[in-house]
Amino acid sequence: MARRGSFAALLTAVVLSLVGLVGLAQPAAAAPADKPAVLASFTQTSLSSYNTFFAARADQAAWAAYGFDWSTDKCSDSPDNPLGFPFANGCIRHDFGYRNYKAIGAFGANKPRLDNMLLADLERVCARYSGLKKAACDSLAHTYYQAVHVFGTAIVTRADLDRAAAIMQSGAAGAAGAA
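Now predict its structure.
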């Protein structure tokens, strides 16, 4: 009789374990139906979209149900702050757009807007400057844009940086000569 009780207890334990495993094997909850709309709201060229994205990025846990990929390598193989111009945030948002539109299979239709978004973000950085410094920043912003537009990644060469630095230095040299 003791054996029969042990067998029943063992069988009950096995059944309960299997029920527990079945419960764990349930499919993950699907992302909310508005994921494409939320993704689009984070990846427009406007300043309000930029601000909305960075507010969400600062509170990623609130967006966990959407399964967004927040990873970034910033400006890839190009400087994040070329000649001191802070381009990293524009690159972070651009990475977010590329990664997440690829994940939902809608990259091709959205790539032009994502590249224009990067340009708009970098131009907002450049708007903080004036004169030759702004011209150098604008030159680099357009170089970054062309790199992602053509190659899909920012590839800025030493020659690109030297050309922008020369723009800034030409103003300094002209000012010194006029003094």
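The mean pLDDT is 84.
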